[in-house]
Specification:
- Helices cover 26% and strands 30% of the residues.
- The strands form 2 sheets. The protein has a 6-stranded mixed sheet, with helices on both faces.
- The chain is globular.
- Bound molecules: inosinic acid and magnesium ion.
- The site of magnesium ion has 3 residues, from loops.
């Protein structure tokens, strides 16, 4: 385990197992729809890569970068688009792929945006859901794991751009983000 962590919350094996299950669920809805999978950079990259490789049917991928956190552990509530999609979403079945839904403000904003752009449907799959901190009545359509209100890192998620390369999800030691 990385020395900056208090504990491993979700092991590499559990993540990979759950991703296979999620892909099966998604197959039921999307196997005939050629969905546009929208990866939210940077955190969702490992999840997108593993999930889409387990989705054995036609799909397309695109990427979007938004900012909500900067280098602090508190959300600003402001969502800024840093990189937009290359693909038109009009008439498409859009599947937003997120690493973690916390306050829900980022996802709510993105869903509204895709609807404004006339997507045929908009749903979201998140690896992690932290419902305790929700500031809007949003429930992700597909979710890997519901987790307690702790600051986690790894498997794409970061603190100040660190720890994204850990293959598991861990709880960061409090003294590292409260100092
Ligand atoms: P929301 O708008 O508050 O739902 O923020 C979602 C985004 O905040 C996620 O995509 C993450 O980038 C980041 N985030 C929220 N909680 C955590 C955490 O515990 N660790 C790392 N990043 C987090
Ligand atoms: Mg994110």
């Amino acid at each position: 385990m990385h020395p900056d962590l208090e504990e491993i919350l979700i092991s590499e094996e559990k993540i990979q197992q759950r991703i296979k299950e999620l892909a099966k669920e998604l197959r039921k809805e999307y196997s005939e729809k050629n969905p546009l999978c929208v990866c939210i950079l940077k955190g969702a990259v490992p999840f997108m890569a593993d999930l889409t490789r387990a989705m054995d049917f036609p799909l397309q991928m695109d990427y979007m970068a938004v900012s909500s956190y900067g280098n602090s552990a508190e959300t600003s509530g402001v969502v800024r688009i840093l990189k937009d999609l290359d693909t038109p979403v009009e008439g498409r079945d859009v599947l937003i792929i997120e690493d973690i839904v916390d306050t829900g403000l980022t996802l709510r904003h993105l869903i509204t945006l895709m609807k404004t752009r006339k997507a045929k449907s908009v749903k979201a799959v998140t690896l992690l859901d932290k419902p305790d901190r929700r500031q809007t009545d949003l429930t992700p359509d597909y979710c890997g794991f519901v987790i307690p209100n702790k600051y986690i890192v790894g498997y794409g998620t970061d603190f100040a751009e660190r720890y994204r390369n850990l293959p598991y999800i861990g709880v960061l030691k409090k003294e590292l983000y409260q100092s």
